[in-house]
Amino acid sequence: MNVNTSDTEKVHDQFLAYTAEKMDDPEAVERFESLKERCEAQFDADEKASLRVLDIGCGMGVQARVWARSGHEVTAVDLDDGLLQAGRKRASTDGVEIDWVQASADRVPLSDGQFDICLAIELLEHVPGWEACLDELGRCLRPGGYLVVTTTNSICPSQREFRLPLYSWWPGFLKKRMVRLAQTTKPELANFTAWPAVNWFNYWSLRREFKKRGMEGLDRFDLMDLSRKSWPIRMLVRTARVFPPVRAALYLFLPGTLMYGRRAPDG
C-alpha cells in the first residue's frame, strides 16, 4: 500500500510531537545520568573530566545534553533534520554547547579515532544496515575508548518498540508484517516513527559483533559495581558472569540490551 506525501508528513509531525513529549521524561534523564556515570568511571581521573563524546542517532539530544552539562565535548549526529532543529533549540535554551551534525549512521563525516566514547542509544534496531553503523562507531572510537550500545533484547518477552504483547518472541514473518503496517496504515503501532525496529539482538550476538571489530564486549553485569549491592545481588551477578545459563535467565527480565565495547589501547 502506497502512502502519499501529505500522509508521510503528518506521521512525521506526530512522531516529532511524540518525541518532544518525552524530552523531559525524568526516567530517561535519570537512566542517561546513570549511564554517563558508569562510563566516566572507566576512565582515569584526569581523563574523565572532559571526554570527547559522539552520540549517533541522537534524536532531540536528551542524552547529548546530559553529557554536555557535565562539561564533556559532545558531537550529536542524526539523519532527521526536524529532530536536530528541536535539539539545537533546546540546547540553546539550556545554555549547553553541542556540535550538531546531520548525517546517516552508516556514513558519519568525522575523523577516525576522534572520540573517547561513542554512543548508539536505541539505534541499531532501527537501522537496516546496522553492520555498517557498527563499523562507523568503531572507526570513530580511539584506542582505549568505549562504545556504548543500548538496543533490543530478543530473550525478553517485554519490549518498548511495538505496542504489541510478547513481540520479541514473534516469528520473523509476522514482525515483517507489523513493520509494514507501522510504516503505512498503523503508525501508532511503533510510536509513529518512520523507522520501526527491524533488528533484534542479545548479549551474545552483540559480543560477537564487537569482537569482529576489535572490541571486548561487556554488559551491565560485567561492569556492575558490586560494592554497593546486597549479598544476594553480588552472588547472583558473580554467578551470571561465570555461567551463561544464569546470565540468559536474567535477560528474561530485561526489555533491552546494554553493551559496552572496549577498544584495546595501542600497544
Structure class: alpha/beta
The count of helical stretches stands at 11
Helix content: 40-55%
Global Rg: 19 Å
Basic shape: globular
Number of strands: 7
- Physical arrangement of strands within the biggest beta sheet: 3-2-1-4-5-7-6
Q: How big a fraction of the residues is strand?
A: 15-25%
Quaternary state of this entry equals: single chain
Largest sheet: 7 strands, mixed
Low-confidence stretches: none
What secondary-structure arrangement, pairings included, does this model have?
Blueprint: H1 5-21, H2 26-40, H3 45-48, E1 52-56, H4 62-69, E2 73-78, H5 81-94, E3 99-102, E4 115-121, H6 130-140, E5 141-152, H7 172-183, H8 203-212, E6 215-219, H9 220-223, H10 231-242, H11 244-251, E7 256-263
Parallel strand pairs: 1-2, 1-4, 2-3, 4-5
Antiparallel strand pairs: 5-7, 6-7
What do you see in this structure?
The protein is built from 11 helices and 7 strands. It is α/β, with parallel strands linked by helices and 267 residues long. The radius of gyration is 19 Å and the shape is globular. The model has no long low-confidence stretch (mean pLDDT 91). It has a 7-stranded mixed sheet, with helices on both faces. Helix content is 43%, strand content 18%. It has helices at residues 5-21, 26-40, 45-48, 62-69, 81-94, 130-140, 172-183, 203-212, 220-223, 231-242, 244-251, and strands at residues 52-56, 73-78, 99-102, 115-121, 141-152, 215-219, 256-263.
